[in-house]
């Protein structure tokens, strides 16, 4: 089992409690992005295309703890940017796990060798290492040679030290099912505790706009992969029903509030993938977001989305409503032969709105207005393989 039994029980208990309390919307996983700065520049990433003033911002330890107190989700995924560039990351992890939150720390693994001693194995903590396929696939995805080998070395070292380690595998157009299946075999042999996989979301700021999968291609790709995986013991950290959805067997609508995102801008509306605005508080995010305006069929930018941050929560909530259904899929794996469920119509979706430039201008103005009279000192230091500018005030 990729997710520890106690974690599955606690999360299941939490979901049942929300249903009994009659809560229409509630978070399952708090997504924390305490910084946007990264030491890679991947072709499919839509998170790091910000000016330096914004890349130098950090959520403090206290802000991360406060975000947890506001959302109070049972699971927390810390992403970015590259979280290991954040100086307070060990304290953030310690603070959140002390509250008995299941923390997944998402990293490209480049700094893991140096930073591993700052962390301790803990049943509430797991590394989640970015690995988009085999060596050639991953190095191409992250636009840098040698990253795959360093990430694999980091996985080995973390496992040797007794940490839980999962991998996060995003797939793009052109991925070959046989190759992905071989890769899943390899990571299982490496001893990873689980795989989290999904298609890439077509971020409008990603440098490579050519290789995002549409929904039809996504479903066919995952069907072909899962067919090759029949009888193998691949361990996924995701709900079997989400995998069934990826293979074209569930007609799910997204649950964007299931994985709310707190960034240095505030609480992002409507979801982890789309930054259409920011709320000051978690309550404001939940109460005042026009949720009906988003999702496949409702909004052009959502047309091809099948990402776990939108649909995993739908799958988990479905599992509570239909436990016999999840039991069947967990036992036999996702359906790979029967006709797929009909696709959601896009006939009435509203047109995309483009807000990035205005949001950046607003944030930069805000930062300028907060500048101390003398202006911030900016030093340049070598964080890993290449120089990274870090504002003293931000760190
Ligand atoms: S479909 Fe849902 S999860 Fe995906 S981008 Fe749209 S709002 Fe976000």
Let me know the number of strands. 11
Number of domains: 1
- Placed side by side, the strands forming the largest sheet appear as 6-5-4-3-2-1-7-8-9
Strand share of the residues?
5-15%
User: What small-molecule ligands were found?
Assistant: iron/sulfur cluster
Rg from alpha-carbon coordinates: 20 Å
Written as H for each helix and E for each strand, in order along the chain, the element string is: HEHHEHEHEHHEHEHHEEEHHHHEE
Keywords: Iron, Iron-sulfur, Metal-binding, S-adenosyl-L-methionine, Transferase
Domain Radical SAM core: 20-233
Organism: Asaia spathodeae
Pfam family, one: DUF3463
Please outline the helices and strands.
Elements: H1 5-20, E1 29-32, H2 52-55, H3 61-71, E2 75-78, H4 89-98, E3 102-107, H5 112-115, E4 125-130, H6 135-141, H7 147-160, E5 164-171, H8 177-190, E6 194-199, H9 215-229, H10 240-246, E7 261-263, E8 266-270, E9 275-279, H11 282-288, H12 308-321, H13 323-332, H14 356-370, E10 378-382, E11 387-391
Parallel strand pairs: 1-2, 1-7, 2-3, 3-4, 4-5, 5-6
Antiparallel strand pairs: 7-8, 8-9, 10-11
Iron/sulfur cluster binds next to helix 12.
Keywords: Iron, Iron-sulfur, Metal-binding, S-adenosyl-L-methionine, Transferase
Pfam family, one: Radical_SAM
Domain Radical SAM core: 20-233
Description:
There is one protein chain. This protein has one domain: Aldolase class I (TIM Barrel, Alpha-Beta Barrel). 46% of the residues are buried. Strands 6-5-4-3-2-1-7-8-9 form a 9-stranded mixed sheet. The chain has a two-stranded antiparallel sheet with strand order 10-11. The protein has helices at residues 5-20, 52-55, 61-71, 89-98, 112-115, 135-141, 147-160, 177-190, 215-229, 240-246, 282-288, 308-321, 323-332, 356-370; strands at 29-32, 75-78, 102-107, 125-130, 164-171, 194-199, 261-263, 266-270, 275-279, 378-382, 387-391. α8 packs across α9 (215-229) and α12 packs across α13. The chain is built from 14 helices and 11 strands. Bound molecules: iron/sulfur cluster. Residues 254, 256, 270-271, 273-274, 294-296, 302, 305, 307, 309-310 line the site of iron/sulfur cluster. One of its GO terms (molecular function) is transferase activity. Keywords: Iron, Iron-sulfur, Metal-binding, S-adenosyl-L-methionine, Transferase.
